[in-house]
C-alpha cells in the first residue's frame, strides 16, 4: 500500500514527538540501506529531541562501522517504547528486540507488507530504498538533518539502487537525492570510497565466485559457499550477501542465487536476484521475503536449499519460455 506522503510523515513525526523511549530496529544481517537508515534516523531524533532515549539496536556488521555505532540492547529500564521498524516486512526478521516492552510500532519500508501489525505504516514499494523514505521523513518534518546524517542516507540510497541502476530508481529518487545534497551541502563524491574500496581478499573471493558459479540450462545461476571457503578468503557471510549485485548484468541467466552456510548464526543464508521471474513469493516459502526481483531467506538444511533451487529453476525456465513465445 502506498500512502500520500505528507500526511503519513506528519503522523510519524507526531508519534516520535510523543514518546520518550524510542527503539529503532531493522532486519537481521543488515545491508547498507537497513543500517544506514536506522542510524541516520536515530541520530536525527537525538539531535532534534536530546531529552529522549533513542536506541538503534541489532547485531552489527564490522565493515559498516563507518555509519555509526549501534546501541546495547538493555531494556530493563525501558517501558512503553515506540518501536520503529525499518526495511523489514515481517516480525520474525526484526533484529534485536527480544525482551523489549513496546507500546506501538511504526513501520517504514519499501518492501511489500507482510505480518507486522501496526497502526502507523509507510510502505512504498516504488521507492529505491528505505533511506530514500527516511530522507523524505527528515526533510519534510522538523527533524534535524546534518552532514553525517545526510551522508548515511545518501550511501544507503546509492547502495540499494546499485548506483541508481536498478528498476526501483525513479525521477523522484533523483529529486530526493538532489534535495539531500543541497539541504546538507553534502560533498558526496568522496563517500563512494566507503562503498566501493575493498580489500584484495574480497577481489579474490569474487574471482572464486566467477570461477565456481553454476549456470544451469534453465536460466538459473547459483553457488554454495561453505565455512571453509569463507575462512580461506578471509570474508564473512555478509560479504557474500553484499556481493550479489555485482552479477546483475550477465546475459547467460535470468535468476542468480548465492547460498552461504553461516555457521556463526546457525543458518544458511540465501540471496536471490532476478531479471524477470518473480522470486519473493518463492522466498516466502522458506522463511524469507523481499522484492519481486530481489529477495532472500534463512534456511536450516541443505535439503531445503535444493528444493528452493529447483523452484527457482522452474521459475527461470518458465520465464524464458514466455519470452520466446512472445518473439
Task: Describe it.
- The protein has eleven helices and eleven strands.
- The chain is of the alpha/beta class and 327 residues long.
- β10 and β11 form a beta hairpin.
- The longest helix is centred in the C-terminal third of the chain and has 24 residues.
- The mean pLDDT is 93.
Helix content: 25-40%
Largest sheet: 6 strands, mixed
What is the string of SSEs from the N terminus onward?
HEHEEEEHHHHHEEHHEEHEEH
CATH class of the largest domain: Alpha Beta
Q: What is the alpha-carbon Rg in Å? A: 20 Å
Structural class by secondary-structure content:
alpha/beta
Order of strands in the sheet with most strands:
6-7-8-9-11-10
Label the CATH architecture of the largest domain.
Alpha-Beta Complex
Cα(first) to Cα(last) distance is: 34 Å
CATH topology of the largest domain: inorganic pyrophosphatase (n-terminal core)
Number of strand elements: 11
Q: Assign the CATH superfamily of the largest domain.
A: inorganic pyrophosphatase (n-terminal core)
- Secondary structure tally, helices: 11
Beta-strand residue fraction: 15-25%
The 3D shape can be described as globular
How would you state the average pLDDT, rounded?
A: 93
Unreliable residue stretches:
none
- The overall number of domains is 2
Amino acid at each position: 500500500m502506498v500512502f500520500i506522503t505528507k500526511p503519513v510523515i506528519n503522523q510519524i513525526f507526531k508519534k516520535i514527538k510523543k514518546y520518550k523511549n524510542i527503539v529503532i530496529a531493522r532486519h537481521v544481517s543488515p545491508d547498507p540501506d537497513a543500517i544506514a537508515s536506522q542510524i541516520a534516523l536515530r541520530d536525527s531524533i537525538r539531535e532534534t529531541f536530546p531529552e529522549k532515549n533513542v536506541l538503534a539496536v541489532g547485531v552489527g556488521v564490522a565493515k559498516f562501522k563507518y555509519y555509526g555505532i549501534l546501541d546495547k540492547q538493555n531494556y530493563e529500564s525501558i517501558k512503553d517504547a515506540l518501536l520503529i521498524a525499518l526495511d523489514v516486512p515481517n516480525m520474525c526478521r526484526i533484529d534485536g528486540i527480544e525482551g523489549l516492552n513496546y507500546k506501538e510500532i511504526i513501520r517504514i519500508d519499501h518492501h511489500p507488507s507482510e505480518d507486522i501489525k501496526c497502526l502507523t505504516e509507510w510502505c512504498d514499494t516504488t521507492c529505491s530504498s528505505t533511506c530514500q523514505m527516511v530522507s523524505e521523513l527528515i526533510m519534510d518534518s522538523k527533524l534535524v538533518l546534518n552532514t553525517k546524517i545526510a551522508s548515511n542516507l545518501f550511501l544507503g540510497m546509492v547502495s540499494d539502487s546499485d548506483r541508481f541502476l536498478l528498476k526501483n530508481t525513479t525521477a523522484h529518487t533523483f529529486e530526493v537525492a538532489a534535495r539531500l545534497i543541497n539541504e546538507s551541502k553534502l560533498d558526496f563524491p568522496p563517500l563512494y570510497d566507503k562503498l566501493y574500496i575493498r580489500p584484495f581478499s574480497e577481489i579474490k573471493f569474487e574471482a572464486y565466485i566467477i570461477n565456481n558459479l553454476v549456470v544451469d540450462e534453465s536460466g538459473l545461476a547459483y553457488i554454495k559457499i561453505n565455512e571453509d571457503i569463507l575462512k580461506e578468503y578471509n570474508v564473512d557471510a555478509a560479504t557474500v550477501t553484499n556481493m550479489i549485485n555485482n552479477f546483475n548484468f550477465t546475459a547467460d541467466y535470468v535468476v542468480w542465487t548465492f547460498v552461504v552456510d553461516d555457521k556463526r548464526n546457525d543458518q544458511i543464508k540465501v540471496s536471490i536476484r532476478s531479471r524477470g521471474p518473480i522470486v519473493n513469493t518463492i522466498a516466502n516459502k522458506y522463511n524469507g521475503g523481499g522484492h519481486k526481483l530481489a529477495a532472500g531467506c534463512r534456511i536450516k538444511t541443505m535439503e531445503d536449499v535444493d528444493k528452493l533451487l529447483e523452484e527457482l529453476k522452474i521459475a527461470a525456465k518458465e520465464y524464458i519460455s514466455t519470452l520466446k513465445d512472445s518473439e
